[in-house]
Design brief:
This protein has 197 residues and is mostly helical. The protein has two domains: 3-48, no CATH class; 60-196, no CATH class. It is built from seven helices and no strands. The chain has helices spanning 3-8, 35-48, 59-102, 104-112, 117-150, 156-186, 190-196.
């Protein structure tokens, strides 16, 4: 007899719990089976197995219980991730605001030489996107090295989908954070910027 046969026809010793099949038995019932059948089955099983604690639950109840157990972990990690994203966004917004105030004279000189508000706006957003791209290249190198260690536990389609979504979210957050400071930079009048200098 091969190993598969040994696995299929394993002898169960009632005195030895290690030889038992498992702690749960899943029974598929015909649609429309009423509660009387469950009561009869419980009575018969309790007669056969005196030493067991029997409990009957529907598959829907088991699924809901399992979902509640694992969804709380997902909610905790989602909350932590959202908190970190908000902190990073505020930090990026502050850095851009400081950078624009620091470069006010440069922006004023560009405006006095005829640059439009749109070109100033495009320059600030473009610079921010270029810096984000360099950061993403470095971060992607680290993430793909990490995937080499986690590929036994993580499906490739989930990894690549989450990677693409993460990159898009990073670009979106960068664009949102750059929007208001670059709009302020575009609204700077040359006389005002040079007067401050």
């Amino acid at each position: 007899m091969n190993d598969f046969g040994k696995l299929l026809f394993k002898r169960i010793n009632p005195e030895n719990p290690d030889s038992w099949i498992g702690e749960s038995i899943l029974i598929k019932m015909k649609p429309g089976t009423n509660m009387d059948f469950e009561e009869k089955l419980m009575r018969r099983l309790s007669i056969i197995s005196n030493n067991f604690t029997l409990e009957m639950r529907s598959l829907e109840a088991m699924r809901e219980r399992s979902f509640d157990k694992y969804s709380s972990i997902v909610y905790i990690f989602a909350f932590i991730s959202l908190f970190l994203v908000i902190n990073v966004s505020l930090g990026l917004f502050g850095v851009l605001w400081y950078n624009i105030n620091y470069r006010k004279s440069e922006i004023g000189i560009r405006r006095s030489f005829g640059s439009t508000a749109r070109s100033i706006y495009s320059q600030i957003v473009g610079e921010t996107m270029v810096i984000s791209t360099f950061s993403l290249i470095l971060g992607s190198f680290i993430v793909f090295q990490l995937y080499v260690f986690l590929r036994n536990w993580l499906r490739p389609d989930i990894f690549y989908a989450s990677y693409i979504i993460s990159v898009l979210v990073i670009y979106l957050i960068t664009a949102i954070c750059a929007f208001y400071p670059s709009k302020l930079a575009a609204d700077i009048e040359p006389a005002e910027a040079l007067h401050d200098e």
